[in-house]
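The freezer alarm interrupted the setup, so I double-checked each line after restarting. Inputs confirmed:
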Amino acid sequence: MKKIRIALIGYGNVGKAFAQMLLRKQEYINETYGCEAVISAICTRSKGAVMDPEGIDVRTLRDEDFDQSQDALRVIDFGEYDIMAELTPINIMSGMPAIEHVRRAMNRGKHVITANKGPIAWAYRELRDLAREKNVQFCYEATVMDGVPVYNLTKETLMGCKITEVSGILNATTNFILTEMEKGSTFDEAVAEGRVQGFVEADASMDIDGWDAAAKLTALMNVLMDVSITPLDINRTGIGGITKSDLDAAADAGKKIKLLCRGWMTEDGSGNPKPVGTVGPTLVDRDSLPAIMDATSSYVSIMTDLMGGVTVIEEPFEPEIDHTAYGVLSDLLRILLTIRLT
Amino acid sequence: MKKIRIALIGYGNVGKAFAQMLLRKQEYINETYGCEAVISAICTRSKGAVMDPEGIDVRTLRDEDFDQSQDALRVIDFGEYDIMAELTPINIMSGMPAIEHVRRAMNRGKHVITANKGPIAWAYRELRDLAREKNVQFCYEATVMDGVPVYNLTKETLMGCKITEVSGILNATTNFILTEMEKGSTFDEAVAEGRVQGFVEADASMDIDGWDAAAKLTALMNVLMDVSITPLDINRTGIGGITKSDLDAAADAGKKIKLLCRGWMTEDGSGNPKPVGTVGPTLVDRDSLPAIMDATSSYVSIMTDLMGGVTVIEEPFEPEIDHTAYGVLSDLLRILLTIRLT
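Predicted 3D structure, all chains:
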């Protein structure tokens, strides 16, 4: 059976969960796609890399199997693989070095999956065009709402529709904090509780200041509305200034405060189309869709010309399921389908 | 440019809206799929049929152009077309004659689109297998939630996931009636208002008694959970027994009453998997997702093994957009894509 080799650049929670999911679905993949998908390289920043074209057995992988003299660029440039999965942590202010990883893999004619939204928020159009030129697949479903198929919902199932607006709650951390504060916690207590439950990272500033939401909105707009903006173009306000009394006042008026994202097209002074994106705390009615998105739920609404409004919701996380890893797996299956058809 | 010919079996609101949408998207189709999609036959029960392999111009079509001596079966068996679109009104208790229309078109090697859910609720497995045998496409996205891509969300974008449960609000008419009653109308007043606004048909019994919802739930379960049931297998209760005081009592308890559908797998006495489907008025919390689905909104939630729960919402109808016609158009584009690739 034909082997399809995957290089994992980054091996944190998502990479490990993806490797486990791949094991679980191995038989399904063999039967459905007529090939064997193996991990032929794993690369981490601290430990170096391990490579085996026959496939790495992650169940027996030990720290000492890693070669400290190897790094991501060497693996990407010289390693043996068909698909590069970019799973490193995002640098939200530049998208680097993930963009360079994607670029180099594509230049070698390799398919690319990224769970890192940096390349989509900072260099989507360049990388999309490069993928076309090199005739490789470029998949990024896990970059927004984890494995919930927001991009492919539009590309594969809402065919022929033009997207005129996107909106939603895109950041789970801030939604969790606001939900805890509604229940009575102070801002700091909510952040601390989120850390205990694993929903808030050690450095939560990128979430709290709205940068993560802005990067996701940018990614959605770049892909779905065919624009070319960066997170710096988003009018952004975080939730750092929200107090318990703001939420109480909202509740008294039958409302809630949610960190909403919204992107749409307007015109500049000369009548040319101009994208506008906003992220900020917003008052919403208690019985509206954003209001009932508690804790780690999120949603994206898109407005289309032919089908009106369509919304997709990601339900709250369940501890035993890694939604982001599924996003990577679904992209892998999409690539395997293409390989099988060609 | 290659002509792809479409036969419309049924030419009511959906057929007419689809024909208009096709005109609007003609240029897009030519450019994207490299072919011209024309309507080569239109068939109605009362007026007979009109056929033109070069393409019928619906803008100038008059009643006297129809040939009274033609009927659906003659068009399907002897007409010139590549794709048959089954757009006749559903017979919810048997799925006929739509099933026979689909069967005959497939037996001639023609692709099939159905907006009529009868074939999916009553004969899905047979027709799916026949389509495979004849190597034709069988598309039915418009049968549930109009053009919202519930089937293709699962098939094309949630690849590799197993669906363990489906639930939702699937019938807009009953949701509209319950919403009006919450606002203060009696049942009869709500039905009358729905007729004025065009959301309630002359004979609303199939909606009110839950048959339409049951047929849609059956269709979803047959396709997404790979079972073979009919609407008669659904445990079904309509909204005919719901009174204003029921809704008031619910409101006093912070709840609403909604006609919910739910399908899942259980085991029969011998430990074999057994599908269970229920449709009935259900008490839901005021701030839950079903509760905020007012008027003509609807939603489907699916529970998956790899991705947890995912929900798709169809926003309220907008008068200028025909959501069902878009479902037919999206199926057409799906078929054109396949034709182009092969």
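Quick read of the result. DSSP finds twelve helices and twelve strands in chain B.
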